[in-house]
Amino acid sequence: MLANLQGTRGLVFSGQLLLDLVEAGVSREDAYRLVQSHAMHTWKEGLDFHQLVLNDPAITQPSHAHED
Question: 5: Cβ–Cβ under 8 A, 6 or more apart, which residues?
Fold first, then answer.
């Protein structure tokens, strides 16, 4: 089972990331664009989705989130 999860290179978590970004105040369209971009790089280039996300300040530094 672990081998199957590792084989996805983290893509299995893309849906949850999308939901988390929207919950943090990112518009659904922007969240989709961010997640889809990293998912496609992961798929086409064999990169690690988690590392791509961690290295993206648009995701890790949520200046786009609104405060209540």
Answer: 12
Q: What is the mean pLDDT of residues 46-64?
A: 87
DSSP letter assigned to residue 62: -
How far apart are alpha carbons 27 and 45 in whole angstroms? 27
Q: What is the mean pLDDT of residues 53-58?
A: 94
Q: How far is CA 47 from the centre of its chain?
A: 13
Q: How many Å from the N-terminal Cα to the C-terminal Cα in the chain?
A: 41
Residue type, 26: V
d(CA 38, CA 43): 9
pLDDT tens column, 22-50: 999 999 999 999 999 999 999 999 999 99
Structure tokens at 53: 């996300």
